[in-house]
Amino acid sequence: MTFQRARTEEQREVRRRAILETTSAMLDEMSVAEVTLNELSRRVGLAKTAVLRYFESREAVLLDLMDDRTATWLAELEQELARAVDRGRPVGERAEQTAEVLSRSLAAQPTLCDLYGAQGGVLEHNVSVEVVRRHKQASLRNLAVMAGLVRGYLPEVGDHAEQFCLTVLLIAGALSAYTPPPPSLLAVYESEPALAVHRIDLRSALRLAIITTLVGVLPRS
């Protein structure tokens, strides 16, 4: 950003994107809970009050980032499903292939899962009605895209596709809180391996949860 003050809509959008990209980079280093406006403003090179001209709160920044990252992930998911799921196979095999792709793809997006985990209890608070409305509109669009992808390979889910996809994202968010374990917990597991019996592997746990959910929505033969 070579300009001192954003005077045109184009310049305001450049600054807005810079804030989102800086937040995204921060999330490669830290959890959602650790992101602060003070650190964000320092890294983006703006005063905190200047950042608040573009986003009304820390939560508003993270909601927009979650919507953007979800759209990007869905574009990648479309290609992953196309490569791995055979539409000509029986429904049970397609369900297993779909569960494998979804679990692998989501497990490779720990930051996105962290954002899903924080969405209801943190990110949708401290924001205005207009910010929540915009976020929910984007969320519904993304959910419709995801449901369409799933129906493309498992048309048997029918009208349950949106609810299935929402459940998968909520589960991914909940499970992400347990992975990776903090250093103290890792030390306990190392000293007493028997206590690690329920240690969560995100991909494996997601796969089991997705298959279990599909059992509930697919028609019984």
What is the helix tally? 10
Q: In what range is the share of β-strand residues?
A: under 5%
- Using the coordinates shown, work out and report the CATH topology of the largest domain: Tetracycline Repressor, domain 2
Number of domains: 2
Indicate the mean pLDDT.
93
What is the number of strand segments?
0
CA-atom Rg in angstroms = 20 Å
CATH class categorisation of the largest domain:
Mainly Alpha
N- to C-terminal separation? 60 Å
Low-confidence stretches: none
Main sheet characteristics = none
So, the CATH homologous superfamily of the largest domain?
Tetracycline Repressor, domain 2
Question: What level of helicity do the residues show?
Answer: over 70%
| CATH architectural name of the largest domain | Orthogonal Bundle
The SSE string, one letter per element, is HHHHHHHHHH
By secondary-structure content and strand pairing, the structural class works out as mainly alpha
Instruction: State the shape.
Output: globular
DNA-binding region: 36-55
Keywords: DNA-binding
Pfam families: TetR_C_34, TetR_N
GO molecular function: DNA-binding transcription factor activity; transcription cis-regulatory region binding
